[in-house]
Each structure stands twice: as C-alpha cells, then as structure tokens.
Design goal:
The protein has six helices and 16 strands. It is of the alpha/beta class and 278 residues long. The strands form four sheets. It has a six-stranded mixed beta sheet with strand order 5-4-3-2-1-16. Strands 8-9-10-11-14-15 form a six-stranded mixed beta sheet, covered by helices on one side. Strand 9, helix 4 and strand 10 form a beta-alpha-beta unit. Helix 1 packs parallel to helix 3. The termini are far apart.
C-alpha cells in the first residue's frame, strides 16, 4: 500500500481517566468513520493533572489503566491501528516512584505492538515565567523504538523529544519512514517553535512527521498550543489544524514520497566521523 489514510486526534484531555475516555472516544470514532487506518492521539491522552497528589490518585500500570484498556478495545472494534500518543502510567521500576510517559502502539486486533517511554523530560524556565520540572514526576526512558506496521517503520517520540534531532536521525536510519510526535506543547514554545521544529525534523530525516497535540485551557490551569500538524518528507506541511480546539485532522500520505525525498538528498548515507570542537 503506497497510500495511507491517517488521522490525528487533537484533544483537551480532562483530569480524570473516565472523563478522558468520554472526551477522546468520539474523536477516534470520527477518525475511523472518515477512513483513517492509522489514528494518533496526543501526549497524556489518559489524564492531564499537574498536581502530584492528584496524579497519584489516578495513576495505574499501563495494563490496568482505564483509558489504555478502553482504547485497545476500541482499536479492535474499529479495525484500526491506534497510537495512544502517551499515557501517564506507573513505570514499574523498583525504587523509583516516578511515572512513565509512555507511548503505546495498538494494532487492529487490540494488541500492543510497541511501547516507548519518553526519553527527554521537560525541565525548563520560560521567559514568560512559566516553569516546568517534568523530571520530578516522570522517569525518562532509555531506548529508542521503531515499531513495525503494515506501512513501514514508525519511529516513536513524545513532545520534548522533538528538540533532539539526533534521536530522529537514529530512528530514520533504523528504518522509520513515519515518525510520531504526540505532544502537549506550551503556548509560548508552540507559537515560537512548533511548526519550525516539525518541518526541520522531516527535512533532516526524509520522513513523514505526524504530530497530534493537546490544545487549549486545561482543568489544571495549563494552556497548550494545539495546531496538530502533518509534515511530508520534503518538509512541506501536508495538513494542519489552525486552532487549539478538540478535533480530527485527516490526510492521505503518499508513502512513495519518502523514497523520492531520500533519493534526491541522500543525507542519511552521508555521515562522516569528525573530531569534536576544542
């Protein structure tokens, strides 16, 4: 198959898993009804809670999480591949109470095809005074993942990973033709950097970049940028939402475009060793 119908689901995820299910399920159904075979949701699809006590009250292991279980059932019912952009779940690491920010790829039978724990955690102090210390609550992962799909390799990343081009290059060289960037970008960084970074990562890798996003004012007080976007392997914006409201973004990807872009500029084969700067 050289034409892949995809859909990105843009959410404004609530603070409870039950409400998150009620919020995202109709959007996924809309995506499937529109013909999408691969559907992607944003970072933190299962709940958005900044308060640590509030998180702890709803935190569960991935196999027990209410939203993950429901979306696995939904993928099987609809016969679609579904990337749960990420779910905040117990890491399962002894001695570390922090959660994992875990992306979960579900196949069309409801099975877990691959998982990836966000590598780079968001510890920043923005010029607006907004401050984030994701490392206090999230245990970073330690491995990159390229998942097999019927349409080729899918590189898995989450949000802040977007700022680390070496990860994207490694995914492309390991066989990814699609790279997912499920996100919950802040408004200041989204306005300044979101589309530029997405287009740069596509150009550098010759991959399709699929970036479903959270958007708008959340119950815990944060605001996210929205503007879910699909970028082609030549760096062109294939489709985007121009707002931060919940919705679905559809596109049909010409998968042959990956080979054309890489043949035109075969940069993935041109690496050279070099001495570090002194």
């Amino acid at each position: 198959m050289t034409a892949l119908p995809v859909a990105l689901v843009q959410t404004r995820t609530p603070a409870s898993p039950a409400a998150a299910c009620a919020h995202v399920e109709p959007l996924i159904r809309e995506a499937a009804a529109g013909g999408a075979k691969l559907i992607l949701t944003p970072e933190a699809t299962n709940f958005v809670i900044r308060d640590r006590q509030g998180r702890e009250a709803v935190l569960a292991a991935a196999e027990e999480d209410e939203v993950v279980r429901r979306l696995r059932d939904l993928a099987r019912e609809l016969g679609v591949w579904l990337l749960i952009g990420s779910a905040i779940v117990r890491s399962g690491v002894d001695g570390d109470e922090r959660a994992a920010n875990r992306s979960i790829l579900v196949d069309d039978h409801g099975g877990v095809a691959a998982t990836y724990d966000k590598l780079h955690v968001y510890d920043v102090d923005l010029p607006t005074g907004e401050s984030w210390r994701e490392s206090a609550a999230i245990r970073p992962g330690d491995a990159a993942v390229v998942a097999g799909t019927p349409w080729g390799g899918l590189g898995m990343t989450v949000c802040y990973d977007l700022r680390f081009p070496q990860l994207f290059r490694a995914l492309a060289k390991a066989g990814a033709s699609l790279i997912a960037v499920p996100s919950a970008f802040t408004v200041p960084t989204g306005e300044a950097h979101w589309e530029t970074l997405l287009r740069a990562r596509a150009i550098e890798t010759g991959c399709f970049i699929l970036a479903p996003a959270q958007g708008g004012a959340h119950e815990d007080g944060r605001r996210t940028w929205g503007r879910s976007t699909i970028v082609g392997p030549w760096g062109e914006v294939v489709a985007r939402l121009d707002h931060d409201e919940p919705g679905v973004l559809f596109a049909t990807l010409d998968l042959d475009a990956v080979a054309r872009a890489r043949q035109a500029v075969p940069q993935l084969t041109h690496d050279r060793d070099f001495a570090p700067p002194r």
